[in-house]
Amino acid sequence: MGFTRAELESFRDAVIPDLVAPGCRLLFVGINPGLWTAATGAHFARPGNRFYPALFRAGIVDRLIDASSGMSDADRDHLLERGVGITNLAPRATARADELTDEELREGGRHLANVVAEFRPRAVAVAGITAYRAAFGRRKAKAGRQDDTIDDVPLWVVPNPSGLNAHETVESLARAYAEPARAAGILS
């Protein structure tokens, strides 16, 4: 499946629902949906995004998920059965995360607190240090486990899997994602 630039632009500001359910143990938090994600209705769907390959490499899921054409019911169910949920700091789709305002990210931090309070995951992993700093006012935060929690749930800042984050590899992403997955009881 491919999209023209005009087709993708038609999804600007669209909102896709969170992928989270009771029994969520590990909640991944993206910055916001990209246009490809909005077009397919699947989180981290842009071809070349390394999120699902990193989940597979880490052992968080037991098969490689390809969400580039949308997510199958079987893949969605597999994530939920494994206790993996996905949400975003900002709900609206943009071509680039730098199109978001700091206020949108701060509002996203409040939304995240509500999602955590409702679903009570064992760990939260925010994918993107710059967005985390803006959302939570932690200008000097570093990647990894944070001293802060959200509603007493341990919090990690992990690398964003976007291809724009070129110095990260599937292997380095998998190592970073495995840390909160161990805390969530998904990995031993």
TrEMBL record:
<keyword id="KW-0227">DNA damage</keyword>
<protein>
    <submittedName>
        <fullName>G/U mismatch-specific DNA glycosylase</fullName>
        <ecNumber>3.2.2.28</ecNumber>
    </submittedName>
</protein>
<dbReference type="GO" id="GO:0006285">
    <property type="term" value="P:base-excision repair, AP site formation"/>
</dbReference>
<dbReference type="InterPro" id="IPR036895">
    <property type="entry name" value="Uracil-DNA_glycosylase-like_sf"/>
</dbReference>
<keyword id="KW-0326">Glycosidase</keyword>
<keyword id="KW-0234">DNA repair</keyword>
<dbReference type="InterPro" id="IPR005122">
    <property type="entry name" value="Uracil-DNA_glycosylase-like"/>
</dbReference>
<dbReference type="InterPro" id="IPR015637">
    <property type="entry name" value="MUG/TDG"/>
</dbReference>
<dbReference type="GO" id="GO:0008263">
    <property type="term" value="F:pyrimidine-specific mismatch base pair DNA N-glycosylase activity"/>
</dbReference>
<dbReference type="GO" id="GO:0004844">
    <property type="term" value="F:uracil DNA N-glycosylase activity"/>
</dbReference>
<dbReference type="Pfam" id="PF03167">
    <property type="entry name" value="UDG"/>
</dbReference>
<keyword id="KW-0378">Hydrolase</keyword>
<feature type="domain" description="Uracil-DNA glycosylase-like">
    <location>
        <begin position="17"/>
        <end position="178"/>
    </location>
</feature>
